[in-house]
């Protein structure tokens, strides 16, 4: 992946535009180009400004010289046959020679199929009348101008999601009216429910009954029938507002092109919304990772970089390609239903700076990330642990094209951004209490390719100079607890609901009233704790087992270590103590406050 120089194409086009069809000798007057383009999208206020200016060098375009009749290329030598009826030429050493495919002449060992010419004149010979023999040397693309300054500033407007224009599939927003919005819709990854027929799709990940491997699709009518497990992301969408700034300054020093300044900043404001469910009716364990949907390169905006009187303009285009990825691992011991939602917002800034004579800057920073949720519901009777991430990889790639000539240059470097929210839902239980905990972890991966200026002009790879190292960052953006709830676990393992068991069976048969002096009194058990309240504790209960013998007032919950001083109502059989104590624990789990 290359960071490539779009200026060269503008220069080459300007050269061709400067010549008249009958021109044989370049004028001594320096050729210049100077463009200042302002564009604004009325709907959102998005703005783009492009400024380019410079002075061209001395270049010969064989396609525009009427005297040229035939051209033959071999190794580093070019033979030019001139027409007998046309004026002679006065080429000199050091001039740059270009020619399109019409001459069927390849001056490129690496790409002989290109049939194009790009070279610098080394020496000139005249072996015959009307024949010019040119011995060439390699020419770098920056040698076609004396100086140049390019500035691009792109500020995306305010994006207001609506039923028909809610974006995540292609998180960039087109900024020019000339772009077909509807066409952009059909190329989006259809995460969200936008009301658009092409985009109204649900992403499902499921395991069919009797199958070993999980599958995935976008069937909005999918049901649980015939499945052992179903994950549905039925309303996952979002968008990113992109601001882009690039500045490039090049001068010719000692007859060599020098990059004086390069700056690039991309500011990405992101919003992500997920609404999802997980359903299973049995014990299951599965893992699934992979790419669900791919959108190949789609134009985000396109503007003329340089315009000419006699040639088509050079176009600056920013493309974006995206793919939807899923990573899911789930383990459950019993039937489980889980549904939830989450909304994330935040900002990622990618910045690069190269100024001659100063240290380079190459960094990624994140700001103001927040997360909210309105629903996290886990219905599980046994252990449940699910971790999933549904996210996009987005590649932004600027490049230029010039239909008039065979020029291929990519304005870069390509920037890859992936913001991944990973949600972990866990349900665990002890004897009487079950707790459900949901966490979200957000990380951002950013990769910026090595910043080169690399040009394929006329099918020839003619320049490759490194400017900045590649940039790769993984940033742990945030971690947050979305939900933590506990309740009485009436479905705990080894616990049987005694729906058909009588009180006598559970607590023992009733017997005579016992006093503290009875032999059987020693077999009774004293209940402890504040979650069991007896009726005697709400009244003036002062009888302690023997008529006329007072003990502590039960209204004050005085519970002594000795049986003789305990409230009489707290002295129960072991069977009743076990049942009431378990009930107290259920109450504490369900209503901790």
TrEMBL record:
Q: What is this protein called?
A: Uncharacterized protein
Gene source species: Dreissena polymorpha (Zebra mussel)
Instruction: Could you list this entry's UniProt keywords, alphabetically sorted.
Output: Signal
Residues of the signal sequence? 1-18
